[in-house]
Specification:
By secondary structure, this protein is an alpha/beta fold. Helix content is 39%, strand content 19%. The strands form two sheets. Strands 8-9-7-10-6-11-12-13 form an eight-stranded mixed β-sheet, sandwiched between helices. It is globular, with a radius of gyration of 22 Å.
Length: 371
C-alpha cells in the first residue's frame, strides 16, 4: 500500500483524542482525515462515501463494541485496514479484535508515536524500530547558545523524576558540558569510557559510569575531549546499547559537523529543534528542512524568545522554512536561570513562566495530556 495514495479516515469520541489524531496528521503530511463521531457514524460514512484504505474508529469504554463492529464490517472491503481505539486495557480484548480481523488496537489517551508507527506499518513502510528498545530523543540547537542543553536537562529531569521513566541523558559536547550545573551536580565525566567500550556496554558498566541525578535519571558526559573521526561508529553503538537499558535516551547534540551525530539524528525517534529566532537560526532551519519529511520520526520545533522582539525573525517565517508548526514558545527569563543556578536545582523546580513552558513541552514529548 503506497503512503502517497493512502486514504485514512479517523473518528474520535472526544476532543482530546481528536487533537492527538490531528497532531499525527501533521506528521503524516495531511493524509489523515479526522472528525468527531462514534462507530455508528463511521458506518454511515462508509455507506455514503465508500471505504477508505485505513479506517480508525473509537470504541470508547468498549461497551457493545462487538455488535457495533459487526454492523460496520458489512461495509468494510477485505483490503481495508481497521484500527480500533478504546479506553479498555485488556489483553483478551486485543486478541479477540485481532482474531476478528481488526488490524490493530490502541488504548486512549493515545500514544501518538505508537499509533503513527502503526499507520506507517499498515501503509507498507519498513520500520527500523526494534522491540524492547527505548526511544531516542535528540535535542538540537539551531545556533550556538539557543538553550538546547537547558531544554534537554529539564526534559530529562521531568521525565525521570516526575513521570517515573528510566532516563539516560547524554551530552555529546565532550569538551565542556553544562548539564552538571543545570542539574545541580558535581562534575564526574564518564561518557568517553562508554564510547571507547561501546561493544561492552552492560548493566554493570552503566552502573559504574552513570552519574545518578536521581534513581530514574542517569547523566553521561565528558570534558576536555572530542569525538573520534577514526571510529565514527562508536557513538551509534553506544546509544543503541543504552536504549536497551533505558526507556528514554536523550541526546544533547551540540552541532551536526560530525558524521556520527548526523547518523544519530537520522535514527532518533523524536527530534526537538530549538530556534532562537535569529537570522542564523532561520538559515539553519531552512537548510535542514528536508529532514522534517521523515514520517517515522517526530519533529518538534521550539521557539526560544531569547532576544528583543525587534531582532526576532517572525514565527510564521520560521514555520514556513521548517515546514512544521512551532509546538512551544519559551519566554526569556534570566531571573529563573539565576535562581536555579544559585540554588543548584533544575530550572523546572521553580514556578516561572519558563518552567511552565518546559513542562508543557515535556508533556508533548511524552504524549501526556495536560491536567
Amino acid at each position: 500500500m503506497s503512503s502517497e495514495k493512502t486514504n485514512i479516515l479517523a473518528f474520535a469520541l472526544n476532543k482530546t483524542t481528536l487533537e492527538a489524531l490531528h497532531a499525527i496528521n501533521l506528521e503524516l503530511a495531511g493524509s489523515l482525515q479526522c472528525q468527531l463521531g462514534d462507530i455508528n457514524k463511521a458506518t454511515q460514512t462508509l455507506i455514503e462515501q465508500g471505504a477508505p484504505d485505513i479506517l480508525i474508529v473509537d470504541g470508547g469504554q468498549c461497551l457493545q463494541l462487538e455488535s457495533a463492529l459487526l454492523a460496520l464490517s458489512e461495509y468494510c472491503p477485505p483490503q481495508m485496514k481497521l484500527i480500533v481505539l478504546g479506553e479498555k486495557t485488556d489483553l483478551s480484548l486485543y486478541r479477540n479484535l485481532l482474531f476478528a480481523g481488526v488490524s490493530d488496537y490502541h488504548t486512549t489517551p493515545l500514544d501518538q508515536d505508537v499509533l503513527r508507527l502503526s499507520i506507517l506499518h499498515l501503509q507498507g513502510k519498513k520500520l527500523n524500530k526494534v522491540l524492547r528498545q527505548g526511544r531516542t530523543i535528540c535535542v538540537i540547537g539551531c545556533a550556538g547558545g539557543t538553550g538546547a542543553s537547558t531544554v534537554a536537562s529539564n526534559l530529562a529531569w521531568i521525565m525521570g523524576q516526575e513521570q517515573k521513566q528510566r532516563v539516560a541523558l547524554l551530552d555529546f559536547d565532550l569538551f565542556h558540558s553544562q548539564h552538571p550545573i543545570l542539574l545541580g551536580m558535581d562534575y564526574e565525566p564518564s561518557l568517553n569510557n562508554l564510547l571507547n567500550n561501546a561493544q561492552r556496554i552492560d548493566a554493570t558498566l552503566l552502573m559504574h559510569s552513570a552519574q545518578q541525578v536521581s534513581p530514574n535519571l542517569h547523566l553521561f558526559y565528558d570534558q576536555n575531549s572530542h569525538l573520534s573521526f577514526e571510529h565514527i561508529e562508536q557513538p551509534e553503538l553506544c546509544v543503541k546499547a543504552m536504549a536497551e537499558h533505558y526507556g528514554t535516551v536523550i541526546l544533547d547534540i551540540p552541532d551536526l559537523r560530525h558524521p556520527a551525530l548526523l547518523k544519530m539524528l537520522d535514527q532518533a525517534d523524536i527530534c526537538i529543534w530549538i530556534n532562537d529566532a535569529s537570522l542564523s537560526g532561520f538559515r539553519y532551519i531552512d537548510k535542514l528542512r528536508h529532514r522534517f519529511s521523515n514520517q517515522e520520526q517526530r519533529n518538534l520545533l521550539v521557539y526560544n524568545a531569547s532576544r528583543q522582539a525587534k531582532a526576532r525573525i517572525p514565527k510564521a517565517e520560521i514555520e514556513r522554512a521548517a515546514t512544521i508548526k512551532i509546538c512551544c514558545e519559551l519566554p526569556f527569563d534570566d531571573k529563573a536561570f539565576l535562581n536555579a543556578e544559585s540554588q543548584g536545582t533544575p530550572l523546572v523546580k521553580g514556578k516561572s513562566k519558563l518552567a511552565k513552558q518546559l513542562r508543557s513541552l515535556a508533556l508533548q514529548v511524552s504524549n501526556v495530556q495536560e491536567g
